[in-house]
């Protein structure tokens, strides 16, 4: 980190290296009422983070062993994808027991240890919460399918066959395997599964289901978890009349199942907001420390805002859909930011995500030449950034040979496998990049560049993406304008997007270029706080030139 101006390097170090006492303007982030608004969240896909018992699958001990990396990086909270007992048909999003740990990941005692060790370092821990469905191996579903008269029958969504004997309506599984309904021959009814047949949908109209699932939240909060990320928050309730979804007007020939239909009746159903109010009130039963209710809301910004409610639903609906599927151009990005800013009512707070376990990683999506610039955007935008493990070294997707595909979606629909973005974290230059020892086969292959693109190599390089990510996270921590300031668009052309973040007297200017070089007229002398190449510093003024795929983070120079 020796390349930065001294005061900045010192400030970054002060914020990122003092475990448990990370000071931000004299206050500890952990005591903040709405800590998520100031936080950088880091998503861990536990299977792929670090393996400590030589089975090629990441585990809780592995996460504990790498907490110091996260403290050094400067993030504030970890969100763990599901760690509960599961047959792993959907790698943990098919839960067979909500209040235990899958033995592949460890034990409850290991989890308590992880919590204790994370908290001791000033890190929050957020768990995935999957309310819309369970595993078909969950004892609730075993009881439910055992007979039409079982008291748990109504815990899931059962319907008699349509008049013609087929599924009750035209809803399709999200994973492209056919109808969202499977016939249970023994009881002669179909059950609903928005995703795999191994993931039957829970019936949230049943008060007993609501109560049982609220108890799950309490169980983890009593142990000390700091919040939840609600899986498919917009799919928990559906049309009670189960009407057919209308055909999509602009559907491409051959589009897979669910994409041929407009999901009018099977998602974003208005009554789902009742459920979020209930979840929020449950989370608020625990206020010391305050707990986060974030949620996956895979909808456009205009639809997503409803999930804040009147500050009585999700604290932080996670908006990743629009950003991951759009072309990474100046005008599109600027328009998206405007859409989000305009859609959000006063007092609500956005989030930004570039990669996750469901979507292609951002360096592969936007292109390697724009990866650093995209990282600058993520970490300077107004809103809570969520980094996906590996984003800090700009990890890309890994091609998976056909015979090693693990993801059920990839097996149902060619090209839809999510394995490429779930490969093991490369830590160093040792065998298996330090994810697991030599001689152990990791559950998915490592990327071909793991010996070069890994944490150890990038830590030794002051110009690496890791150095860039850490500097930006450090800048957020020391600059209120970046952390929680307002947003204003400054300039948008085909090749350049500039915006300002302002808090009180402090202003930060961010200038991004895309596929071509561009110039930008500065309105006076500015100090370079950070550049994509980690190579520019000092004062700049007048018309500045940026190469393609560059970004500068600037502060007005007040010494002039
Ligand atoms: C969204 C999760 O992110 C994804 O990984 C999962 O397959 C589905 N929900 C079903 O739970
Ligand atoms: Ca393991």
What does the secondary structure layout of this molecule look like, with pairings?
Elements: H1 6-17, E1 23-24, E2 27-28, E3 41-44, H2 60-65, H3 67-73, E4 77-80, H4 108-120, E5 124-129, H5 139-146, E6 158-159, E7 181-184, E8 189-192, H6 207-223, E9 227-230, H7 272-283, E10 292-296, H8 301-304, E11 316-318, H9 321-324, H10 330-343, E12 351-353, H11 362-366, H12 371-380, E13 384-388, H13 408-412, H14 455-459, H15 465-478, H16 480-484, E14 486-492, E15 496-503, E16 506-513, E17 518-521, E18 526-531, E19 539-540, E20 543-546, E21 551-556
Parallel strand pairs: 3-4, 3-13, 4-5, 5-9, 9-10, 10-11, 12-13
Antiparallel strand pairs: 1-2, 6-8, 7-8, 14-15, 15-16, 16-21, 17-20, 18-19, 18-21
Helix pairs in contact: 1-15, 6-7, 12-15
Bound molecules: 1-deoxynojirimycin and calcium ion (CA).
The total tally of domains equals 3
Give start-end ranges of low-pLDDT stretches: 1-7, 15-31
Q: What is the CATH topology assignment of the largest domain?
A: TIM Barrel
User: What percentage of the residues does DSSP assign to strands (E)?
Assistant: 15-25%
Total strand segments: 21
Strand order of the largest sheet: 11-10-9-5-4-3-13-12
Radius of gyration: 24 Å
**Helix-strand category:** alpha/beta
- CATH superfamily label of the largest domain: Glycosidases
CATH class category label of the largest domain: Alpha Beta
Characterize the overall form: globular
Continuous helix count: 16
User: Helical residue percent?
Assistant: 25-40%
Question: Which CATH architecture of the largest domain?
Answer: Alpha-Beta Barrel
Biggest sheet record: 8 strands, parallel
How confident is the prediction overall: mean pLDDT? Answer: 93
Bound molecules: 1-deoxynojirimycin, calcium ion
Distance between the termini: 27 Å
């Amino acid at each position: 980190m020796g390349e930065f101006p001294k005061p900045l390097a010192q400030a970054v170090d002060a914020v990122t290296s003092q475990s448990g006492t990370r000071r931000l303007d004299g206050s500890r982030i952990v005591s903040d009422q709405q800590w998520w608004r100031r936080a950088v969240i880091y998503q861990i896909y536990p299977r792929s983070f670090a393996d400590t018992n030589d089975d090629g699958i990441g585990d809780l001990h592995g996460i504990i062993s790498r907490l110091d990396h996260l403290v050094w990086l400067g993030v504030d909270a970890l969100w763990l994808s599901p760690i509960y007992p599961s047959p792993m048909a959907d790698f943990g999003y098919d839960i067979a027991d909500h209040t235990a740990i899958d033995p592949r990941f460890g034990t409850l005692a290991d989890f308590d240890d992880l919590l204790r060790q994370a908290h001791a370092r000033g890190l929050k821990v957020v768990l995935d919460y999957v309310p819309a469905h369970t595993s078909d191996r969950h004892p609730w579903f075993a009881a439910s399918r055992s007979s039409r008269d079982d008291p748990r029958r109504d815990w899931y969504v059962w319907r008699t066959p349509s008049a013609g004997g087929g599924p009750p309506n035209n809803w399709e599984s999200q994973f492209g395997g056919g109808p969202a309904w499977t016939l249970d021959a023994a009881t002669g009814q179909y059950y609903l599964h928005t995703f795999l047949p191994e993931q039957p949908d829970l019936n949230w109209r049943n008060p007993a289901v609501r109560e049982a699932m609220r108890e799950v939240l309490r169980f983890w909060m009593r142990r000390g978890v700091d919040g939840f990320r609600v899986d498919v928050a917009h799919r928990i309730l559906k049309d009670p009349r189960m009407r057919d979804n209308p055909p999509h007007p602009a559907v491409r020939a051959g589009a897979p199942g669910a994409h041929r239909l407009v999901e009018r009746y099977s998602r974003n159903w208005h009554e789902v907001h009742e459920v979020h109010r209930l979840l929020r009130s449950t989370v608020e039963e625990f206020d010391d420390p305050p707990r986060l209710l974030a949620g996956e809301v895979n909808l456009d910004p205009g639809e997503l805002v409803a999930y804040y409610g009147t500050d009585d639903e999700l604290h932080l609906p996670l908006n990743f859909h629009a950003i991951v599927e759009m072309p990474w151009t100046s005008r599109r990005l600027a328009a998206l930011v405007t859409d989000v800013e305009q859609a959000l009512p006063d007092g609500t707070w956005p989030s930004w995500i570039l990669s996750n376990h469901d979507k292609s990683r951002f360096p592969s999506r936007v292109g390697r030449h724009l990866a650093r610039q995209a990282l600058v955007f993520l970490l300077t935008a107004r809103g809570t950034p969520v980094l996906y493990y590996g984003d800090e070294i700009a990890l890309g997707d890994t091609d998976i040979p056909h015979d090693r595909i693990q993801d059920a979606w990839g097996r149902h629909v060619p090209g839809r496998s999510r394995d490429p973005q779930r490969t093991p974290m490369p830590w160093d230059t040792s065998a298996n990049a330090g994810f697991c020892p030599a001689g152990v086969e990791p559950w998915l292959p490592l990327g071909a560049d793991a010996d070069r693109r890994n944490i150890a190599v990038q830590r030794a390089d002051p110009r690496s993406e890791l150095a860039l990510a850490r500097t930006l996270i450090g800048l957020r921590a020391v600059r209120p304008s970046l952390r929680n300031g307002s947003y204003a668009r400054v300039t948008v052309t085909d090749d350049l997007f500039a915006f300002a973040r302002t808090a009180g007297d402090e202003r930060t200017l961010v200038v991004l270029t895309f596929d071509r070089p561009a110039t930008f007229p500065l309105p006076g002398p500015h100090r370079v706080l950070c550049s994509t190449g980690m190579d520019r510093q000092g004062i700049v003024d007048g018309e500045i030139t940026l190469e393609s795929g560059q970004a500068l983070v600037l502060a007005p120079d007040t010494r002039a």
